[in-house]
Amino acid sequence: MKAVWTAQYNLVQGSRAVLFDYCDTITPAHFVAENTGFGRGGSIRNLLVHNGHVYRFWIGQHAFGREMLYPGYDSIVTVQDCRTFYTAINELVEEFIHRFADTPDVLLTSVRDNQPTSASALEVFTHVITHEFHHKGQMLSISRQLGYTPVDTDIIR
User: Fold this and answer.
1) Positive or negative CA dihedral for 45, 68, 3, 130?
2) Distance from C-alpha of 153 to C-alpha of 122, rounded to nearest angstrom
3) Least packed by Cβ within 10 Å: which of 23, 73, 99, 105?
4) 42-101 pLDDT, tens per residue?
């Protein structure tokens, strides 16, 4: 199972790399421009940071029980800052895969919004990567509204 999860996350990273390369073509002002039609501050940067926060919560805090830092949107300004931010996310995911991929049904429990929350390792892994793709679509929509032509960031391109 470890090899499958690793291969799957490698595909996610490849898609994310395409997105980051595309974001390099967007002006710095447009990268951080907020659009009220989208949640989490509605900027491409804010959605990237939000995705990172979700990885940190579900993997770092929920699965590993660690106190995690959640940098503010304004502390990550450039696409390169996002790449650096995701280096730590990638390390966290690799650790998660190493620890849980061979026991995908293990139940991980923590507290979320003052309520006990349980999810299997497979559910956590699936949630964080599908969540990233959901918001990636929003980022591409925001860029289209700003006048750019989005690139194909699907797994199969």
Assistant:
1) negative
2) 24
3) 105
4) 899 999 999 999 999 999 999 999 999 999 999 999 999 999 999 999 999 999 999 999
